[in-house]
Design goal:
about 240 residues, alpha+beta, 5-stranded antiparallel sheet, single chain, 3-stranded antiparallel sheet
């Protein structure tokens, strides 16, 4: 199902047509943010999933940081009821709810340049620097890991300079990766994609020897961890940009 949501813009929902009617929902944070900026009456120019002009970047950042703290469970349940009529018609299904998890999480940090020429001059140098200087240990550090003798997996860097519409570099660690590319020759984007959250450690309350303690645990896919996904991906993007600078 493809539809326009009043708050989230373009949304698509895939529903499995046999029991247990698994659902996959896709939303784009840039479309949601555009609607929030319109409510705040601050001017912007949106092209595809990118803002090429912002009247007030501080307001845009402030609104963007609210995205992960929305009441996601109720919103996802509402979309599920829209596409699965059995939740209303079948008596024994009415009391049931879906268990929502994060299948893939993409978080980008955009650096908006005032001049296309400045980015055009700088971008090839950034690509060359990342290819030559960022080793496996650096990629693991960006993604919050340390290289050790028990590490099992691949760390791969791939640079495509002949890619359309523009050059891109991608650093992959197992099923998670960091990317850098330009948007419309005006925005430098660094993006972290998380498919396997258990590669990241977060602090959680756990009972140890009869006492509750906050300990480091692997991050899981539950929708309640969305803000922790955001923190992990944001930290990775910042580390990458600082290393480039």
């Amino acid at each position: 199902y493809y539809f326009l949501d009043p708050q989230f813009g373009r949304v698509h929902v895939r529903i499995q047509t046999w029991f247990p009617f698994t659902i996959q929902i896709y939303v784009n944070g840039h479309d949601w943010l555009a609607r929030q900026l319109a409510k705040r009456r601050t001017s912007f120019v949106q092209r595809d999933n990118c803002f090429t002009e912002l009247d007030d970047p501080a307001i845009a950042q402030q609104e963007a940081e609210r995205f992960c703290n929305l009441a996601w469970k109720s919103r996802l349940n509402r979309w599920a009821k829209q596409v699965n009529p059995l939740l209303k018609e079948v008596p024994w299904l009415r009391a049931m709810e879906y268990r929502w998890v994060i299948d893939q999480f993409e978080y980008s940090t955009d650096v908006l340049f005032r001049s296309r020429q400045h980015l055009a001059e700088l971008y090839p140098r950034l690509l060359d620097h990342a290819v030559v200087n960022f080793q496996a240990q650096d990629i693991l550090t960006f993604l919050g890991r340390k290289l050790h003798g028990n590490f099992q997996g691949e760390v791969v860097t791939q640079c495509q300079k002949d890619r359309h519409p523009g050059a891109r570099i991608k650093h992959r660690m197992k099923n998670n990766w960091l990317k850098m590319y330009d948007k419309f020759g005006q925005v430098l984007r660094v993006e972290t994609v998380i498919n396997n959250p258990r590669e990241f450690k977060v602090r959680r309350r756990r009972k140890r020897l009869g006492r509750w303690k906050r300990v480091w645990c692997p991050m899981n896919k539950g929708i309640a961890n969305l803000y922790q996904y955001r923190e992990a991906a944001h930290a990775a993007n910042v580390r990458y940009l600082e290393a480039l600078s």
